[in-house]
Amino acid sequence: MVVIDHEENEDRKTNPSKVPTAESSSATAENETSDGFETASDGDDGEEQLKQGVPPATDSAANNEELVQKALAQANEAKVEGNKLFVDGQFEEALLQYELALQVAPDMPSSVEIRSICHANRAVCFVKLGKYDNSIKECTKALELNPLYIKALVRRGEAHEKLEHFEEAISDMKKALEIDPSNDQARKTIRRLEPLAAEKREKMKEEMIDKLKEMGNSVLGRFGMSIDNFKAVKDPNTGSYSMSFQR
């Protein structure tokens, strides 16, 4: 059973602001009346903070943080909805929800986790739909955000295997083992795929030799010869090969 990833949200705590006393308010009013302006000690300490290299808190910064948190909450809602659709087997609809989460989530460090999870979950949907190339692309995007994302590595390896990209699949599984040496799935997959990878290499080698022979025969045929007229002879003393012509 394929398990899609979830994300945990942490509550933020805020400190209550200090309420000025009647005495301090009276003193401030008196200073404003006599001086005609607000000093750093009477106001928001903005000038003093600037002198110390610390920008004063602004309503704009607070509003931006609020917008970021709201966007993250909306992205998480879309992800959760995508998870429900996935469980119900509605993979196309789940893809749309994960894509919505990716569009809503701001491109900043605080959203890296949810974005990488949504890419990885989209990869699983594409596997279910038999679109393995798309699954590989989504896993790669997840790994660009989080290079230590083991599930994304394993899923990309599985998609490579479906396409008979055995070397690439083994490479992903080996990376997963480097991150987590106890990952039995990756270890078993490597053992299973290595003979298949070796067999594919030999097959590709034979196909390449056949193509070279075909090209050679097309050229030599103009002179009434073929590749079969040439034999490779090994020198027993040096181990090197030489070509001999035979009619």
TrEMBL record:
Residues 1-14 have a biased composition (Basic and acidic residues). This is Tetratricopeptide repeat protein 1. SUPFAM superfamilies: TPR-like (SSF48452). Residues 21-31 have a biased composition (Low complexity). Keywords: Repeat, TPR repeat. It comes from the Eukaryota. Residues 1-59 are annotated as: Disordered. TPR repeats lie at residues 150-183. It comes from Lupinus luteus (European yellow lupine). The keyword Repeat applies.
